[in-house]
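Let us practice reading a record.
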Amino acid sequence: MKKFICAVLTFVLVLSLFVPTSFAMEDDYSRIVYEVEKTNIEIENLVDQAIRDVEKEIRKHNQEIIKLQNLKENVNKDIDKLIYESELKLEIKIKQIIDCLIDDTNKLAGKMIKDAAKVGIKVICEYIEVEIGNQKVLIDPLRVVGF
């Protein structure tokens, strides 16, 4: 009988040691899921802002092109050069905006992955393709994959 009571008490003691950690893990998991969602919203907002910035640059570019095309009839060679330079400027601006977006989203994703790893939760990037300024860009929203 003593052995049985000792076994039951040992079982209860072991069980009581594991219960708080499982609840803590659930809290960490919930927090990380929330943080991942919050980070994904920030990433989505950055993508939206980048799209708006590129569209603004495209509108400015198109207005410039229209002005230049109107002058083109008189000074064909010079205008072709200006159009070419304008298109190069646009490509550079679009590349700068996209590079900034990629840097910002990579920093956000990297920080979130590290924060999740600190509490033992695995979060990964799943790259998706986004079109910005007629260019395909890979952006890295996050997904919780396990403990």
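A brief commentary: Helices lie at 2-72, 76-118.
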